[in-house]
């Protein structure tokens, strides 16, 4: 049976950042696993015909020196660009947000299409099992999935954790988000910057034209619905036609080539925890992290790319002490 110093469950930005930190320290006895075909989690980009569209995070802002230092490096490498905003730059990845996740994880090999289904304590370590029946040993485990999925995995594993930690995890809920991805035959009349987030009809949060954003050769538009709206219509089969009705005056539906719908069950946390990670057993062997874990002094107070980054970084520092 393979034996690792640490298993990081989830290769979104929090998991990748934790892995990068361990890697930099030369502690490469870790396994980064993700259930998906690609790393990135909510840093998601989809190919549509000969174009592409981001359909998770669109951009990120920076408040801390730590992330800013990285960002200066990513800018130099040509991985990201300042999309808009002079005083408060909105950075975005030049080739789609998922590409940035891939670039950040190119120094190690994540184990993909491996969904962790159980974690059991055995002989002073953890035995981790995935949905393919693979089993490995790990001295420590870092969980970085959206909190409701962490809670579910703990329950399925019948793993006993500190009641106060479990209570904190259970106090966090996530909102869903519907994203419509539309391919048009002709350019849109959206502003040159390629995004609108003001004055939109009720229920619509953001519209992004990826040709104008600069990442797509074809006109691919993502329409983000609000959490409230998405929850209300979650699972209904007519959401695409509702979106089209709402945006009749923004997009030329006669020129529509194709459409797809992305349902994020866990898009953004509605409330947050005020510590950048949580030690679930109190012995620094099983830790939860991710974007809903905010540093105590976090000024933005909301879940976002920067909080995922800082949480992954802090959790790795704690676990590799
Ligand atoms: C629609 C949408 C729009 C957004 N817009 C913005 C924005 O504009 N700006 C911004 O800053 N933030 C935005 N965000 C939030 C941002 O994307 C997240 O805060 C951040 O990417 C979260 O990173 P994470 O690593 O914490 O979690 P995730 O990216 O969710 O990573 C968790 C990973 O765990 C994996 N996983 C889950 N369960 C298992 C399992 N059992 N076994 C193995 N792997 C598992 C998942 O596949 C996933 O890859 C947006 C999010 C969404 C969904």
Automatic annotation (TrEMBL):
Species lineage: Bacteria, Bacillati, Bacillota, Bacilli, Bacillales
Pfam families with a match to the protein in the record: Amino_oxidase (PF01593), NAD_binding_8 (PF13450)
Molecular functions (GO terms): oxidoreductase activity
Protein name: FAD-dependent oxidoreductase
Top-level division of the source organism's lineage: Bacteria
Ranges for domain Amine oxidase: 91-318
InterPro entries per record: Amino_oxidase, FAD/NAD-bd_sf
């Amino acid at each position: 049976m393979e034996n690792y110093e640490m298993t990081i469950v989830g290769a979104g930005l929090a998991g990748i950042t934790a892995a990068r930190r361990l890697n930099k320290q030369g502690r490469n006895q870790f396994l980064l696993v993700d259930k998906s075909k690609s790393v990135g989690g909510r840093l998601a980009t989809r190919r549509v015909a000969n174009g592409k569209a981001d359909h998770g995070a669109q951009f990120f802002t920076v408040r801390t020196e730590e992330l800013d230092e990285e960002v200066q490096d990513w800018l130099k490498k040509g991985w990201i660009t300042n999309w808009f905003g002079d005083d408060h730059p909105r950075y975005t990845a030049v080739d789609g947000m998922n590409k940035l996740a891939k670039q950040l994880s190119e120094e190690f090999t994540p184990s993909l299409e491996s969904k962790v289904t159980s974690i059991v304590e055995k002989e002073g370590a953890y035995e981790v099992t995935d949905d393919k029946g693979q089993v490995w040993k790990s001295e420590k485990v870092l969980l970085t999935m959206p909190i409701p999925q962490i809670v579910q995995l703990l329950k399925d594993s019948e793993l006993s954790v500190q009641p106060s930690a479990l209570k904190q995890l259970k106090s966090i809920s996530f909102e869903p988000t519907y994203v419509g991805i539309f391919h048009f035959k002709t350019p849109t009349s959206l502003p040159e910057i390629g995004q609108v987030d003001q004055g939109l009809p009720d229920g619509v949060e953001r519209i992004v034209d990826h040709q104008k954003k600069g990442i797509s050769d074809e006109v691919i538009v993502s329409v983000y619905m609000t959490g409230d709206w998405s929850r209300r219509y979650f699972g209904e089969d007519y959401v695409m036609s509702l979106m089209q009705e709402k945006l009749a005056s923004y997009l030329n539906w006669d020129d529509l080539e194709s459409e797809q719908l992305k349902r994020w069950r866990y898009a953004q946390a509605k409330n947050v925890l005020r510590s950048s990670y949580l030690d679930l057993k109190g012995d620094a062997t099983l830790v939860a992290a991710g974007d809903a874990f905010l540093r105590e002094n976090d000024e933005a107070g909301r879940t976002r790319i920067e909080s995922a980054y800082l949480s992954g970084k802090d959790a790795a520092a704690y676990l590799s002490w």
